[in-house]
Design a protein that fits this description.
Structural class: mainly alpha
Helix content: 55-70%
Number of strands: 0
Distance between the termini: 26 Å
Number of domains: 1
CATH superfamily: Farnesyl Diphosphate Synthase
Strand content: under 5%
Shape: globular
CATH topology: Farnesyl Diphosphate Synthase
Number of helices: 15
Radius of gyration: 19 Å
CATH architecture: Orthogonal Bundle
Order of helices and strands: HHHHHHHHHHHHHHH
Length: 289
């Protein structure tokens, strides 16, 4: 990337989100062609909405940000976009390409994450995330010709991994990013989850095994409670998302093999290992096949 390129508004968002998600910066290296900036801009847009839905702890600032995005996406549909990400996407968002009601579903899905109730089981937990990611998957399909359900499933699994990593913060905020039935299996209460224990480690290993195997698409275990259709077919989710899914799959796999899966998972989120890079390269090749 040239010095001139690095000064563009889009590149500043790429740098921001690559710092938070190093696999995103890696994935961008595999994107070629005219769609490159559009794919990057949409991924950054998803990150912005996710941040408001999951990472802003105070309700009012989150609501203000989500409402602003609702208005901006409406403006983009009328070719009046103001934000660098929506202006980069340009005519792709205009007219009937992405119906206004789809963006309403996205914002409503983001708001729904703010006050989510505990999930009875893993399938219910993933379905809850799908309130946000199903409409985002539909937008991705409209913009880039991917499979909407496959993209939504992959995004929901990545979110499940990150919300698991943020377990301590979630508990402080009165949320539970793990299925209730798994707590019952290991005879744990919410209060027990705040400290490392053998039972908590076992629960996390089981949960990470389910998330990781689906993200990586290495195994097909029919008994899994998480089976978003198409996730194992990386060609249907595009190169960028295939790479990111592969890296998160490796993280989940590594964490489940350690004495403290939560600590290992958190340590891995901000960096890339050699095996992550190798997995990313293989995923990129398969997605182009």
């Amino acid at each position: 990337m040239s010095a001139e390129d690095s000064a563009t508004p889009l590149s500043s968002f790429e740098a921001k989100w690559s710092a938070a998600y190093p696999e995103f910066g890696l994935a961008l290296r595999f994107i070629r062609g005219a769609d490159r900036d559009a794919q990057s801009a949409f991924a950054c847009l998803v990150f912005e909405i996710e941040h408001a839905a999951f990472a802003i702890r105070e309700a009012q600032p989150a609501a203000i940000k989500l409402q602003w995005w609702a208005e901006e996406l409406t403006r983009a549909g009328h070719r009046k976009a103001r934000h660098p990400l929506t202006t980069t996407l340009g005519d792709r968002l205009a007219g009937e390409a992405v119906p206004a009601e789809r963006w309403h579903e996205v914002v409503a899905g983001a708001f729904a994450q703010r006050d989510a109730e505990p999930a009875a089981d893993g399938a219910t937990l993933i379905e809850r995330y799908a309130d946000l990611y199903a409409p985002l998957g539909a937008v991705d399909a409209a913009l880039f010709g991917t499979d909407a359900r496959a993209v939504a499933g992959m995004l929901a699994l990545r979110r499940a991994l990150r919300e698991t990593a943020a377990l301590r913060t979630a508990l402080q905020d009165g949320k539970l990013p793990l299925p209730m039935d798994m707590l019952a299996t290991y005879r744990l209460t919410r209060g027990d989850l705040g400290a490392a224990s053998e039972a908590r480690g076992q629960l996390l290993r089981e949960w990470l095994t389910k998330i990781g195997s689906e993200l990586r698409g290495v195994e097909k275990v029919h008994e899994l409670v998480i089976q978003p259709p198409g996730v194992t077919d990386r060609r249907r989710i595009g190169v960028l998302r295939a790479v990111m899914a592969a890296v998160d799959g490796k993280r989940a796999s590594r964490a489940r093999l350690t004495p403290d899966p939560l600590a290992t998972l958190n340590d891995s989120l901000g960096r890339l290992s050699i095996s992550d890079v190798w997995s990313a390269w293989r995923a990129a090749r398969r997605s182009r096949a």
